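Data deposition worksheet. Section B asks for the primary sequence of the deposited chain exactly as it was used as input, without tags or linkers unless they were present during the calculation. Section C holds the resulting structure in token form. Section D is free text for depositor observations; keep each observation to a single sentence. Incomplete worksheets are returned to the depositor.
Section A, Depositor: J.P.
Section B:
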Amino acid sequence: MLDGMRISKGDLDRLICHAESSLPLESAALLFGRIESNVILVTRVEPVDNVLKSSVAFEVDPMVEYRLLLDAEARGEEMIGIFHSHPAPPMPSKQDLRNMDLNPVVWLIASKTTGRWKSRAFLLDNMKLAEVSLIVV
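Section C:
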């Protein structure tokens, strides 16, 4: 099991700004980095457009994702997470759980239902949902 996901305050702030500027639509981003000693290290965040233009779902353009994956490979990085915002509390939806099964990376979800942005990270392992501690540095 993972001990946490380490992300810089600057990168987390960038994701929250992307989510804020996307309101009322869901926002999305891909997270790149590596795993070291059971900690996911986020080294780069790439905000992307939500091609669904929806307030309750998101989808990343497959060609944009492909280009970002090729770039990550050239940099020696892996896609280690997916970020998106929610109109509900920051918990995976039923659709998220289906997508998490297909994309076995950490899912970082942000929500502003309480008036302030709150972020939580999750991993689906053998169909069991586990929260991953956020380590903001």
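Section D:
The radius of gyration is 14 Å.
Helices lie at 9-22, 62-75, 94-102.
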